[in-house]
Specification:
The protein is α+β, with helices and mostly antiparallel strands. The chain has helices at about 5-10, 20-35, 45-55, 55-75, 95-110, 115-120, 155-170, 195-205, 210-220, 225-240, 240-250, 255-270, 275-280, 285-300, 305-315, 325-335, 345-350, 360-370, 370-380, 395-405, 410-415, 425-435, 440-450, 460-470, 480-490, 510-535, and strands at about 40-45, 80-85, 85-90, 125-130, 135-140, 140-145. It has a 4-stranded antiparallel beta sheet with strand order 2-3-1-6, with helices on both faces. Helix 18 crosses helix 19 and helix 20 packs antiparallel against helix 21 (about 410-415). The relative contact order is 0.04. The model is unreliable at about 1-10 and about 525-535 (pLDDT under 50).
Length: about 525
């Protein structure tokens, strides 16, 4: 057997027997790139939820059937199987296009036969999507994209990339286009300042590296400060060596607005390397620039800049006429660096009743953590939004735990979630009891904490939630109930009967499915336990 024939035999997809990726690449190169042919890229719409719902065996049958349909409908033209539910066909002329369309219609006609009678009557299945939502999926169909080469020198890789983008567009998924052609400064004539800024900032959000030369030309050109500051922010978001060079030069711009954005952009683009460079503007005449510097030094994590931040937070910065906002920015910088050695300085500010802004000093102290932060929290009796618990002594942790359990609230649950190790027996009992009185996002957060801390449920947990649902409590949505049932399924010893009413009989299909799944998981555990016991006997 010749070498090329042997290679063709080896490059066959094991599921469908159709040519695989190496052959597909050669065919696209020959038929589409060199001979101006047409490539048809196909995949099955809704295949993943179908595969998850019915199982791999039936999913493989669907793929094999599609392979057969394509092979016999499209021949004598080429059909290849990339893998999974992705196929590629290649050919010439209207005859090829018609054959691909006939294959699509034939697959659409046979796809209902893969469903059970009940699902066939319903027109599809109810199951989970890739995001965990429970929704309806109609019968399987084909997404087909037909492309010719975009230009004579186009590569196969670029052709395939265009196909992926076009598939998303066909499915209704928004796909970003290139903004760099729109950023030619000669095209700004007659365009409003607001429109120009929108294009510049969108290019940054999309991190379009091709736009850097045009955006840099705007930053360094004869445009208003309002447009140039958008250019600086855009360069920071895109990043790269050329963007960093432009932003370093912009630190000396005559406009304080541009300097402010240049500081922010340089921190985004250069990270920790930007610390020493932005610190040079800590004495800038503009308070806006100085605030950006203090926050930027924090975001870079540059510990060597802490003395500058201490001085600014204490209100000693040079030329500071707007001291409280600058102190706030410096405190944010200290908090972002998160050095535990900053605790003593911050505790001193918190102990000064005349210090402003006291609330920001307290938040910064909690961010760096330690016993001094815990002591300040206990002294105030107020649960902070966040506190770093690393390095806090067991005695202080015990005090914080009691404070968090004083009332069911979001900040208390978040505090408990950060505790190292297991929570006390009192905490576990209290959290289970809260299942009977919390609702909305707080209930969801409570269940998440119980899961994260591996706190098992008992029969009282199911009884509390069941009682709430039976009396018509509408503060629990279907997603929250489903999450609760998942947690319940991880707790051995829960009697199966607790799932019957109201969970297995609720009108929501998502809740019924979650209850049945939870019950099956508990049953799996009982079966495994019984099998192990039988084996030992």
């Amino acid at each position: 057997m010749g070498g090329s024939a042997l290679n063709s035999q080896l490059d066959l997809n094991p599921l469908t027997g159709l040519p695989g990726n190496r052959t597909i690449r050669r065919e696209l190169e020959t038929t589409v790139i060199q001979q101006d042919g047409v490539a048809a890229f196909l995949d099955i719409t809704g295949f993943k939820p179908f595969n998850d719902h019915y199982g791999l065996s039936l999913g493989d049958s669907v793929i094999r059937r599609l392979g057969e349909i394509l092979h016999y409908s499209v021949q004598p033209f080429f059909t290849g199987h990339v893998g999974g539910d992705d196929f590629v066909c290649a050919g010439h002329g209207q005859d090829f296009r018609d054959r691909v369309e006939r294959a699509r219609l034939e697959f659409r006609a046979v796809s209902p036969g893969f469903y059970k009678n009940r699902d066939r009557e319903a027109g599809g299945i109810e199951t989970f999507d890739r995001y965990g939502g429970y929704r309806f999926f109609p019968f399987l169909d084909l997404t087909v994209v037909m492309l010719t080469r975009a230009k004579p020198e186009e590569s196969v890789e670029n052709l395939c990339q265009r196909a992926c983008v076009e598939k998303e567009r066909v499915r209704g998924v928004p796909v970003p286009g290139k903004l760099s052609p729109l950023l030619d400064t000669s095209g700004f004539v007659g365009m409003s300042e607001r429109d120009v800024k929108a294009y510049l900032e969108a290019a940054g959000i999309l991190r379009e590296s091709e736009a850097v030369p045009s955006v840099r030309k705007v930053l360094e050109g004869d445009f208003s400060w309002n447009i140039r500051k958008s250019a600086a922010l855009s360069l920071g978001r895109i990043g790269g060596e050329e963007a960093v060079k432009a932003l370093l030069e912009a630190l000396g711009d005559s406009s304080p607005h541009v300097r402010t954005r240049a500081v922010e952009g340089l921190v985004l683009a250069w990270g920790s390397k930007a610390g020493s460079h932005v610190a040079e503007l800590a004495r800038d005449p503009s308070t806006w620039v100085r605030r950006a510097v203090f926050r930027g030094m924090g975001r870079t994590g540059w510990r060597a800049g802490l003395p500058v931040l201490y001085k600014a937070a204490a209100g000693s910065s040079v030329n500071s006429r707007n001291t409280i906002p600058e102190r706030t920015a410096a405190l944010e910088g200290i908090a972002l660096i998160g050095d535990p050695d900053s605790a003593a300085f911050l505790a001193g500010l918190c102990g000064n009743q005349n210090y402003q802004p006291g609330g920001d000093a307290f938040r910064a102290l909690c961010a760096v953590g330690g016993d001094q932060a815990a002591a300040e929290v206990l002294k105030r009796g107020v649960i902070p939004e966040n506190i770093r618990l690393e390095g806090v002594s067991p005695a202080c942790l015990s005090g914080l735990e009691k404070l968090a359990l004083s009332i069911p609230e979001r900040k208390g649950l978040r505090l408990l979630a950060g505790f190292p190790g297991e929570l006390s027996a009192t905490s576990r009992t209290t959290l289970r009891r809260w299942l009977g009185c919390t609702g909305g996002d707080l209930f969801l957060q409570l269940v998440g904490l119980l899961e994260a801390k591996a706190i098992p449920a008992d029969a009282s947990c199911a009884a509390r939630v069941s009682a709430r649902l039976e009396r018509g409590d509408n503060s629990l949505d279907t997603h929250s109930i489903s999450r609760f049932l998942v947690w319940l399924s991880h707790s051995p010893g829960i009697p199966p009967g607790v799932f019957l009413k109201p969970f297995l009989r609720m009108t929501s299909g998502q809740v019924r499915f979650a209850a049945a799944t939870a019950l099956s998981m508990l049953g799996r555990g009982l079966t495994a336990e019984h099998s192990e016991k039988s084996f030992q006997d």
